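Morning!

This is the sequence you dropped in the shared folder:
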Amino acid sequence: MDMLWITLSLAAIILGLAGVVLPLLPGTPLLFGGLWLLAWTDGFARVSEFTIVALGILAVLAWGIDYIAATLGVQRVGASRMAVAGAAIGTVLGLAAGLVGVLIGPVLGAIAGEWLARRNGAQASRAGLAAGISFLLGTVAKIGIAFAMVGIFAVAWLL
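The structure's back. Tokens below.
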């Protein structure tokens, strides 16, 4: 029975790491679930509950980056509230549209929101560019957090 749980946890960890960059897979929740399950199979003897809580906090942070990265980037370039809302809506709608949607949803949402608010093509383009760059930086941050989670777990497991 332990082998089944270990296999499931390793599968969740692998799928979670893939899901950090692939849309439609809940990356960090799967990763966290796999790490938690692996610690649970050992009765939390090697990895403490404190470590699991810390990993949970990191997982929530990484998950939240998806939703806030584009909106923060749009705010930095002085875009309107409608552009910020557009970037947030574009991010959520983009998640349902797959990889292409995830990449262009925040950009198109920010452009549309800024265009509706100010009818200024240059400012709308800046808002879209900021949303795109922020999304890419957010993805890099999520990847870093995911590998930090695995590293923290590995150190706790080995020590």
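Headline: The CA atoms of residues 52 and 126 lie 40 Å apart.

More detail when I'm at my desk.
O.
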